[in-house]
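WARN retry 2 of 3 for item q-0093 after timeout on previous attempt; input resubmitted unchanged.
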Amino acid sequence: MGSLWTRDATYRKSLKEGFRARSAYKLIDINDRFNVIRKTDNVVDLGCAPGSWLQVLKTLTEGQLCGVDLNPIAPLEGVISFIGDFTSPEIQEKVRAAMPVVNVVVCDAAPHLSGAKSYDQARIMALNEDALMFAASLLKQGGNLVMKSFQGADFNELLELVKERFYSVRVIRSKATRRGSTECYIVAKNFIGDARDDRIPVKKEKA
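OK item q-0093 returned
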């Protein structure tokens, strides 16, 4: 196990540069390519442990940051964190109270895999749908979502659900993703918002 990780150049780079996990470079890559996070955005990070994406977010925005995970993370200055399930109404209310305006939701979470392909894919899709519903309940109109997924059964159905709520939706593979992995990221921009939202509608953005 140790030799496998130490052979990974991205992992070694993350240690050298002080990031808590190699996944930090996935968010850096995504934002460099798609400009998802702006300088004043308030951002919620779902499944934030161990905190590498929050470390990156601190360099990208001066807005408020909030992380949610089932496990605690080592504190980061200026970051609000909650321990719990982001699908629970209690946690959602805590996030809403701490973040009156949410411009971006990011989610790099994935369930623990059993090795049973169809079962694992179903759990991944369920987690993605939960993250999408969370984002739809909190995002400001015109906001953005970045969500990790895995291509497989029901992925296209998930993509259609995202397209119902965002004007621009792309599926990308990060340069930091390991070769052979089916991991991908859904980058959804310009949240359509709720019909009851009285803010000024945003113009549709070309994909």
